[in-house]
Write a structure and sequence with these properties.
TIM Barrel; 12% strand; alpha/beta; 10 strands; two-stranded antiparallel sheet
């Protein structure tokens, strides 16, 4: 397989939908001022998979970029895979359709290829006119601001997500940051099965049982933060020393293939059957991260990288919610 400048042939099969490009561009923590141009540059570089979310606060800017892409004939709408996510404050069924319509309006789209429940965390509703994106705090101006929880069964939110498919607003629906027990419970009740699970996954958080379970249930698996620590160092959730990109095992494999360490880690992710959505705002990194289709890691190299597993989760609500938002809210055992 070879990645060209015009398309990304690496893809992941998704039930009830077209194939999902295996390498996408994540827009988490992407500056608003850069998002529109970055979207255009990414599609020009061959990206067809754009990973967005209401909570990222930049969907309107990504939407401006998408509109420029489509108006300029760089690619067709059907060639793009655009994902967005239902935020925690919109889990009540009556708010789900309103939330996706806002994302669609911001993204200048008639439909999404994939809509995910962002977290299995339900917070009190914050109207759009009060604040959008809603964020984690119910009232940031309160004397002691914190998350204010709501009680909504996941199946009720999911049933509202299913209605979006029938309305043609989304092609596929899925979940993010869910553990196996929650997925199993959802599968026992749903009418439309989740097509995709998106979770943190990298060589320091391999999650082999979760991946195997998803493969057994025909749920596609997308790895966010596929390079691990670099996304979290600037926000104090990781240290430079925790970067897998500087590990001797990865460096040696990169040297053997004459590739960068990032390319090796991304290739490991794709080769184990997952999609990856690295984040970058640099033009040269856009091309580099996409260019992983012209080589293959050996079984021993794959195993060497997998054995680096430390079960190190950088994005853990059980850690950051209490510290940053005043509530202890673990979602992983």
């Amino acid at each position: 397989m070879t990645i060209t400048a015009n398309a990304n042939p690496l893809s992941i099969s998704v039930v009830q939908s077209k194939p999902m490009p295996a390498v996408g561009l994540g827009f988490w923590k992407m500056e608003q001022s850069a998002a529109a141009d970055l979207t255009v540059h990414a599609v020009q570089s061959g990206y067809r998979h754009l990973d967005c979310a209401s909570d990222y606060g930049n969907e309107a800017y990504v939407g401006t970029g998408i509109q420029r892409v489509l108006d300029g004939g760089i690619c067709k709408r059907e060639d793009l895979w655009v994902t967005s996510k239902l935020w925690n404050t919109y889990h009540r069924p009556e708010n789900v359709k309103k939330a996706v319509q806002r994302s669609l309006s911001d993204l200048h789209l008639d439909y999404l290829d994939l809509y995910l429940i962002h977290f299995p965390i339900t917070l009190q509703y914050v109207p759009f006119e009060t604040r959008y994106p809603a964020g984690w705090f119910f009232d940031p101006s309160a004397a002691s601001p914190r998350m204010e929880l709501d009680s909504v069964p996941i199946i009720e939110t999911w049933q509202a997500m299913e209605e979006l498919v029938g309305l043609g607003l989304v092609k596929s629906i899925g979940i993010s940051n869910f553990c196996i027990s929650l997925i199993r419970d959802l599968l026992s009740q749903c009418t439309i099965r989740p097509s995709v699970l998106q979770v943190e996954s990298h060589p320091y958080l391999v999650q082999p049982k979760l991946l195997r379970y998803c493969q057994m249930e025909s749920i596609a698996y997308t790895a966010f933060s596929p390079l691990g620590a670099p996304s979290y160092v600037p926000i104090g959730m990781a240290t430079e020393s925790e970067s897998v990109l500087t590990h001797p095992v990865v460096q040696n494999i990169a040297s053997a293939h004459e590739k960068t360490t990032a390319q090796i880690v991304l290739r490991w992710g794709v080769q184990r059957g997952t999609a990856v959505i690295p984040k970058t705002s640099k033009q040269e990194r856009l091309v580099e991260n996409l260019s992983i289709g012209d080589f293959q890691l050996s079984d021993s190299e794959m195993q060497s990288i997998s054995t680096l597993d430390r079960n190190r989760r950088f994005n853990d609500p059980g850690d950051f919610c209490e510290k940053a938002f005043g509530r202890f809210y673990p979602i992983y055992e």
